[in-house]
Amino acid sequence: MLKTYSILKFITILYLLFITNGCKKDSPTSIPNLPIPPSTAGHWVGTTDSILTLSLELSQKQYNISGFGTMTSHTSGWVAGGTISGKSSYPNFSITFYIPQYQPVVITGRFLTPTTISALLNKSGFTDFPITFLKQKK
């Protein structure tokens, strides 16, 4: 009986030590601060092998992305602008680029770093066309 009492007392003391010491800010048992995922908000420029440049000005509120952009063809000199809307679910996102008088371009991408996005262009003549966007400094 004495052994059982001593074991229970020992477990109780360990539990109390864990509760009082385990909740300290620097304790390894405290809940870590999770990093805030990067936002798509800002000015992004993507270029594909000197053929095409996309310049996007994006805003993000929670999961919703909106903005405007410009697409420039370096082979023909064609330039067109339009509006953008889409969704973000870090690290992935999908936006649609609406250019008047053209079919929308769907851009799906993934953050590689907080300032680099690897993406694919689809529709409006594109099929899995790769592009890398770099976030521009303000």
Protein described:
By secondary structure, this protein is α+β, with helices and mostly antiparallel strands. The protein folds into two domains: 1-33, no CATH class; 42-135, Beta Barrel (Lipocalin), CATH 2.40.128. It is built from one helix and eight strands, in the order H-E-E-E-E-E-E-E-E. An eight-stranded antiparallel beta barrel has the order 1-2-3-4-5-6-7-8. The N and C termini lie far apart (73 Å). The mean pLDDT is 84.
List the helices and strands and how they pair.
Layout: H1 2-22, E1 42-48, E2 52-61, E3 64-73, E4 79-89, E5 92-98, E6 105-113, E7 116-123, E8 126-135
Antiparallel strand pairs: 1-2, 1-8, 2-3, 3-4, 4-5, 5-6, 6-7, 7-8
Which properties best describe this structure?
138 residues; alpha+beta; 8 strands; 15% helix; elongated
The number of domains is: 2
Looking across the biggest beta sheet, what order are the strands in?
A: 1-2-3-4-5-6-7-8
- The average pLDDT is 84
What is the second-level CATH architecture of the largest domain? Beta Barrel
* Estimated helix fraction: 10-25%
Largest sheet: 8 strands, antiparallel, barrel
Q: What is the H/E string?
A: HEEEEEEEE
Q: Pairing-aware structural class of the strands and helices?
A: alpha+beta
Q: Calculate Rg over CA atoms.
A: 26 Å
CATH class of the largest domain: Mainly Beta
Number of strands: 8
Q: Which spans of ≥5 residues are poorly predicted at pLDDT below 50?
A: none
Task: Say what the CATH topology of the largest domain is.
Answer: Lipocalin
Q: What is the first-to-last residue Cα distance?
A: 73 Å
